[in-house]
């Protein structure tokens, strides 16, 4: 039961991370090729948000994996 829940959470987090990364990359590419937008401003805005989202999801996945491995050892 717990293994299924861990799998479901990991799958949802991974899919959400993929969607967010792809959408942010697409928006950044659209902004890079738009003549009205300054390219330096795009990296200033998207860079920290991108790092925060990816770091949070990786931390969540690592926490799920570590908590699941501790259970097997007991």
Written description of the protein model:
This protein is mainly α and 74 residues long. The chain is 89% helix and 0% strand. The chain contains 2 helices and no strands. The protein is elongated and about 55 Å long. The protein starts with a helix and ends with a helix.
Dominant shape: elongated
Poorly predicted runs of 5 or more residues? none
Q: What fraction strand?
A: under 5%
Could you tell me the number of beta strands? Answer: 0
Annotation field: number of helices: 2
Span of the ends, CA to CA? 17 Å
Mean pLDDT across all residues, rounded?
80
As a whole number of angstroms, the C-alpha radius of gyration is 17 Å
**Coarse structural class:** mainly alpha
Q: What structural keywords apply?
A:
0% strand, single chain, mainly alpha, 2 helices, 74 residues, 89% helix
Offer a quick outline of the entry.
The chain contains 2 helices and no strands. By secondary structure, the chain is an all-alpha fold. α1 (2-32) packs antiparallel against α2 (39-73).
Structural topology:
Elements: H1 2-32, H2 39-73
